[in-house]
Predict the structure.
Amino acid sequence: MRRPPARFVWIGGLAALTLLLILRPGWKDAPADRQIPPSPPPGLGAADQDWDPAEIFRRAFWRHPAASDRIIHGARFEWNAADGSLERWQWFLELNPGPDLLGILRDPENFGLIPIATGTATRGGAEAPGSAPAWFTPAQAPAGFEVLQNPQGGLTLHYRAADNTLFATDAGHGFAAPAPR
C-alpha cells in the first residue's frame, strides 16, 4: 500500500485544525472574569475597558511588574465626552505584591499614602463614576485589611497580609486643557 505524499498530509492536518478552531464551541466567548463596564455618568459616552492588567499596573505604580509581583485581575474604565476627549477614568487591580513593591507603596515619600482606619477610605477618588468589578472585594470584607490612601483621596490600597493580597484602585477626571500662554 502506497502512502500519500507528505504535502497532502500537511494540508489535511491544517484544514482539520482550522475547522476545529472555527467550530469549537464558545471560541468567541469573553473570559469568565471579564466585567461589563459600569454605566457612564450623565453626559458621558460609554466606558471602554480593553486594557492589559500589566499596563494598568504600570500606569498605576509608575513601574513594570517585577517577577515577584503576580497580577490576579485588572480593569480600567474610561469615559469620553461627546467630543471624544477623555472625561473620566477609573481602574482596579488585585495582585500578590512582591516585597519590593509593598515597601515602595508603604513608604509615604513615594505615593504619599498613609494608613487610615478601615471603612473610612473614599473609593478611588471621591466621585468615582462606576462600580467595582465583582472580584474587587475589600469594600465587602474590610476586616483584616491594612488600608493606605493619599490624604486627598484617590489612590487607595487594601492589603491583607494573611494571603498577601493587595486591592488597589484610583479614579479621576480627564486631562486638563493646556494653559494659555
Observations:
- The longest strand covers residues 70-80.
